[in-house]
Amino acid sequence: MSDKRQKTQLRLAFMAGDKGEARRTANGGIESLTVKSLTEGPDINERLMEEVCEWSNCRQALVRVKANKGSPGVDGMTVNELPGYLQQHWPVIREHLLSGTYKPQPVKRVEIPKPDGGVRKLGIPTVLDRFIQQAVMQVLQRKWDWTFSEHSYGFRPGRSAHQAVEAAQQYIAEGYCWVVDLDLEKFFDRVNHDRLMAKVAGRIGDKRMLKLIRAFLRAGVMEDGLVSPVDEGTPQGGPLSPLLSNIVLDEFDRELEKRGHRFARYADDCNIYVRSQRAGERVMRSITQFITRKLKLKVNEQKSAVAQPWERKFLGFSFTSGDEPRRRIAPKALKRFKRRIRELTRRTRGVSIERMAGDITLYLRGWLGYFGKCQIPSELRVLEQWMRRRLRSAVWKQWKRSRKRYAELRKRDVGKDLAAKTAGSAHGPWRLANSPALHFALPIVYFDRLGIPRLTVRR
Q1: Average pLDDT for residues 50-60, to the nearest whole number?
Q2: Cα–Cα distance, 231 to 194 (Å, whole number)
Q3: Hey, which of 100, 127, 259, 270 would disulfide with 208, CB 3.0 to 4.6 Å?
Q4: Is the pLDDT confidence value at 318 over 90?
Q5: Which candidate, 349, 91, 124, places its Cα nearest to that of 235?
Q6: Using 50, 70 and 90 to split pLDDT, how confident is the model at 21?
Q7: What contacts 313, CB < 8 A, 6 or more positions away?
């Protein structure tokens, strides 16, 4: 079936679901529609599930799920297979959603390494459940987002980590030069379901929606073929979890606002800015008690601290000291950058320099989109010089033998004596990568031609 025809059939399937039932032909096409009255069911203020199932909302959810890609869940269905599945089964799925009988499948447990060691456990829902979660999230986000705190920046439309960092920078410039850096221990794994559902029930009255959200929370986790029940936590990996995390932490935001604190929060990463160390220690004690007793969460004491902002990191950035603080890249973020470039330029990859440059370019585009906001050009310049040295070293390794190296240097107009001396040197590739011969043979413009973006060019 052509893409155009598939899209048409899919739209008919959704529209059939919006209007009533669909009777299908043997090959899965739409034969006829029977319209049901939409006056039946809950009061108009409790018809959230109908909004979830609307064609425009479902279409937006499908586009988003396909764009996010991601691996299959426990049923093995891929993102590319989802449109065809919905085309065949949407009227039945919609009926289950509207009747409150939809049952999500367990999430697949996946562990990914953290940059600073350890692993982060993700729960990957099936692509169908991701689609439904996305559709639910879009409806609830439109209704709830405006109610959240202005100091909350994570997982919200029109807000970003950069805005949170800029807010923190402004507090420091105003003289709040001590930070209470809070880290919530395993936040997504510790969310209390009953407290969360009580918060959600206070905002919506559609019992089908409440039942569906609880079903997603308690769907279970599959590991090694066995399904384990879940009594707390919101699995990271589904579209709905970030919105639910903001519901949980909105109470925290309101408490900080009530106390008059200056703070910025992005998901479970929160910094509170005060004028003195003594004030910071007092805030740390009282806020820790609130988080433990009221929110039933736990503060990671080893990762939390009261310190001056330039001694801590916030969302990958740190700050300079002085009257006009500037954003700089945090040391851990610099280490992650170097580790990734080393992986892409290692000798054992066995790829051409052009392929290597292409992989680096893809990485740098995303990296610059975030860390290009650094306000210390010298940091970017040092990284850029280090990266070019890694690449010159990689090229030198690929030339391998002295005769080949000499020929390549001469081809690039390096003088005979210098080319011979460099090609016959006993020094290793890393040292020779900084030699005059390789700087002349592989200048900055050479890397420009390979398409590698410069870090120090303002965008």
Answers
A1: 94
A2: 10
A3: 100
A4: yes
A5: 124
A6: very low
A7: 330, 331, 332, 333
350: three-class secondary structure by DSSP? coil
Q: What angle do CA 124, 125, 128 make, to 5 degrees?
A: 145
Spatial separation of the C-alpha atoms in residues 7 and 87, rounded to whole Å: 9
Predicted local confidence at residue 38, as pLDDT: 34
Cα–Cα distances (Å) from 442 to 31, 436, 451, in that order, read: 66, 10, 14
Q: Do β-strands 178-183 and 317-319 pair in parallel, antiparallel, or remain unpaired?
A: unpaired
Q: Is 284 left (phi over 0), alpha (psi -120 to 50) or beta?
A: alpha
> CB 322: neighbour CB atoms within 10 A?
11
Tens-place pLDDT, residues 425-458 = 999 999 999 999 999 999 999 999 999 999 986 5
Cβ(310)–Cβ(317) below 8 Å: no
Q: Cα–Cα distance between 216 and 99 in angstroms, integer?
A: 16
Closest CA to 437 of 399, 383, 384: 399
Write out the H or E segment, with its range, that includes residue 98: helix 82-99
The predicted model scores a pTM of 0.84
The type of residue at 339 is R
The tokens for 203 are 């905002």
Nearest to 263 by CA among 166, 146, 167: 167
What's the CA gap between 27 and 317, in Å, rounded?
56
Task: List the one residue out of 89, 71, 92, 90 whose CA is nearest residue 80.
Answer: 71
Tokens of 343: 């992986």
The yes-or-no verdict on residue 28 having pLDDT over 60 is: no
* Contact (Cβ atoms closer than 8 angstroms) between residue 326 and residue 209: no
CB-CB contact of 273 with 172 (8 Å): yes
Q: Are 162 and 264 in contact (CB under 8 A)?
A: no
Backbone angles phi, psi at 352, to 5 degrees: -70, 165
**β-pair partners for 123:** 109
Q: What is the DSSP secondary structure assignment for residue 357, as one 8-state letter?
A: H
Rg (CA), the chain: 28
The secondary element (H helix, E strand) that includes residue 226 is: strand 226-228
CA 3 to chain centre: 30
Residue (of 95, 2, 89, 5) closest to 41 by Cα position: 95
Would you give the end-to-end CA distance of the chain in angstroms? 44
Instruction: Give dist(CA 265, CA 27) in Å, integer.
Output: 52
Backbone angles phi, psi at 320, to 5 degrees: -85, 160
Specify the residue for token string 């509170």. Answer: 272
> How far is it, in rounded angstroms, from Cα 271 to Cα 314?
8
